[in-house]
Amino acid sequence: MxxxxxxxxxxxxxxxxxxxxxxxxxxxxxxxxxxxxxLLGYPAGHSLREVxxxxxxxxxxxxxxLLVLVYIFAETLFRVLGRLQAEAxxxxxxxxxxxxxxxxxxxxxxxxxxxxxxxxxxxxxxxDTIKDLVEAGRQQEAATEIERLHGVADEIYADIGExxxxxxxxxxxxxxxxxxxxxxxxxxxxxxxxxxxxxLTGQAPDAANQLSPLAALQVFxxxxxxxxxxxxxxxxxxxxxxxxxxxxxxxxxxxxxxGVGFTLGFTPGSPRNGKARPLGLKSxxxxxESLGGTFHLNTHPGSxxxxxxxxxxxxxxxxxxxxxxxxxxx
Length: 330
Fold this sequence. Notes:
The protein is of the alpha+beta class. Among the domains are: 11-89; 175-266 and 275-318, Histidine kinase-like ATPase, C-terminal domain (Heat Shock Protein 90), CATH 3.30.565.10. The chain has 9 helices and 5 strands. The chain has helices spanning 11-40, 48-135, 139-168, 171-174, 176-191, 204-209, 213-234, 281-289, 315-318, and strands spanning 195-199, 239-245, 250-257, 294-299, 305-312. Helix 2 (48-135) runs antiparallel to helix 3 (139-168) and helix 5 (176-191) runs parallel beside helix 7 (213-234). It is elongated.
């Protein structure tokens, strides 16, 4: 995942910096002008009171003019900086949006290759088998293969439904927790697997809301892939998605099921008998590690499966009022 680092300057600090730029040069010049006047002495024929009042008026006039000139300079400078910052943020957002689009394309490509494409290949193979059985007059075996073919078609339909449901999620408007609740409800309704979303601590919603839009999307996809594994492989009676937080610094997401479990260390070609099977774990791990988080898998044959992701919340997103070089008011 593309990571772009930038310095964060709060509005308050930027405003302080601006006024320091205005007052420090003005005060410095004013003090220097006053010292120079006193060093030159008093003009002959004038009383001390007259000289003091005259120099005070002169100093006030100099200070006023300096403040006006320096303020105009500082205001112009910070307006330019504000425009440059706005352009930089716009370019960054474009890059992040493009990166998100590329990631979604990659995800869809992977889902089609690992899911629908393989199921279609299986379907075509079974069609050839049915054709051979019918030609050989083995009607009973052909009927059995047709039933299996129906199961393959159901799997294709379910995979396409999962992809469509994922694309319809509106994380930006709904927020991560609401989007997950909608998805969990739809998952339970479609596949008849009792599934619940649990929020364990009061800080979990705050931590979830502080994720960037792209980070929230990665977490949503992580949960989606985990529940897809539950549907395809676990033969579970129920599943749970749990969100918790250890303070505002990190969000923990746990997906657990009571299914058949499996043995870690799958190698391609292993039989899918509950002892070992591919789960797309590499993709899930990469999603979490791209956010600077950690991924953990706990499973044993007959004991269900639990996947845990811990995602740190960047400090910059925890601070209130972060604005980076924005034009300050006043």
